[in-house]
Specification:
Length: 343
């Protein structure tokens, strides 16, 4: 089976949906023959997959041309993260090609109104269950596959109490709320890993200066996910604006897979993944008493082992890849025309 993936900006290494696709593609490429056509904007970054890339002026037309050129050898086109501007014309073009099509939705705010009402693709995969309420037709819910063996089992070292935050510092991501809550703690260390561009952002100079004066806060650039997680005991996810992250934030799933105790704001699908007090903790980082809430949680049980077991079951690669293959087969069968009986 030849599956052609249609992606956008796959080269952004730390992006949520891009990271989610990376996990899926790494597992799926062992089961199907896979090709990637990637459309991107101004970035000069290179992706770590063999892909046909288009960019610049008339990028959409170039993208459609690549689809046309690959139509004969492709059995199924699988659309990922194209956004409203690209996804609608791609869906119409797929109808013209007459090829089976599958689309995966990672962000509810990137889906057009018409797409929520009219099924533009043969099969639609939602990255989270809560997205189902936005669609008028039946969709499949499949999480991202994560191999927990990629992450060494976490072992809490003595009395070390190290909290980790990494992600984007932009509005809605809760970094200021995290710093406010952390200022109420004693005996804990907060690691903040952000892209170098943040530390060079002059508009955030006051906030950066404030971080520099906090003795228990260590700031540095981004390392590998495995490296960052191995140096922490707790993973903090204070994001409160669901539009700024994908439906199931990959950083949370990876932290749980590594055996860290996750403390997160109940955003998007997280209340369905984290059972408060059993495999992690949910708290409102925007509340006035967030410092007291965080202090109380940190004095509670360490739940990293339960978190890892949750990911082993919820994001099992064999199970999730098997579900994708069933959807591909269903899409193919739906397009097969019944043969006319000879007289």
């Amino acid at each position: 089976m030849q599956v052609t993936m249609l992606t956008r900006r796959l080269e952004i290494k730390y992006g949520g949906a891009e990271n989610s696709q990376r996990h899926l593609f790494n597992h799926l490429k062992n089961k199907v023959s896979m090709k990637i056509i990637n459309i991107h904007d101004d970035t000069k970054s290179k992706i770590d997959f063999d892909a046909e890339e288009v960019s610049g002026k008339f990028a959409l037309l170039k993208f459609l041309k690549r689809m046309w050129n690959n139509r004969k050898e492709t059995d199924i086109f699988h659309v990922h993260e194209l956004g409203k501007y690209y996804r609608f014309p791609v869906a119409i073009f797929l109808k013209v090609l007459g090829k089976p099509s599958v689309a995966t939705v990672y962000h509810e705010n990137l889906v057009s109104g018409i797409e929520r009402r009219v099924k533009l693709f043969d099969e639609v995969i939602l990255n989270a269950g809560y997205l189902k309420r936005h669609f008028k037709y039946k969709c499949s819910v499949i999480y991202t596959p994560i191999d927990v063996n990629r992450f060494p089992k976490h072992k809490k070292k003595g009395n070390r109490n190290r909290l980790l935050y990494y992600g984007s510092p932009r509005k809605g991501r809760g970094m200021e709320h995290l710093i406010k809550a952390f200022s109420h703690l004693k005996g804990y260390e907060l690691l903040i890993s952000l892209n170098q561009s943040f530390w060079e952002d002059t508009s955030r100079a006051d906030f950066i200066s404030k971080l520099a004066t906090m003795n228990d806060v260590k700031c540095k650039g981004r390392g590998s996910v495995e490296e960052m997680l191995s140096n922490a005991d707790y993973f903090i996810f204070p994001v409160y604006d669901g539009n700024t992250v994908i439906s199931v934030p990959m950083s949370v799933l990876e932290a749980m897979a590594s055996g860290l105790t996750v403390i997160a704001h109940p955003v998007n699908e997280l209340p369905h993944v984290i059972s408060n007090g059993k495999n992690g903790y949910l708290m409102d980082f925007t509340s006035d008493d967030s410092g007291e809430k965080l202090k109380k949680i940190l004095s509670s049980s360490f739940l990293g082992g339960n978190a890892r077991r949750t990911i082993e079951q919820l994001c099992n690669p064999d199970k999730i890849i098997g579900e994708h293959l069933k959807i591909y087969e269903k899409s193919l069968k739906g397009r097969q025309r019944p043969q006319k009986k000879r007289r």
